[in-house]
Amino acid sequence: MSALTVLTSGSILGAVIDIADALRLEQGIAVRVLSVPCLKPLDSAAIRRARTPP
Predict the structure, then answer these.
(1) Domain limits of the chain?
(2) pTM, whole model, 2 decimals?
(3) What single string gives the DSSP state of each residue in 1-54?
């Protein structure tokens, strides 16, 4: 199974979750959605979290 991590802002979180569910059900792709208050440069902790398998 393939895996994908998506960083998103709160304003589009619902749509991203719907897309993540569709990818899982229709394509077998596991998607981890990380919501952040605003998209900004990533720090090392955020990069570590994004690299951790779902």
Answers:
(1) 2-51
(2) 0.63
(3) -EEEEEEEEGGGHHHHHHHHHHIIIII-EEEEEEEESS-----HHHHHHHHS--
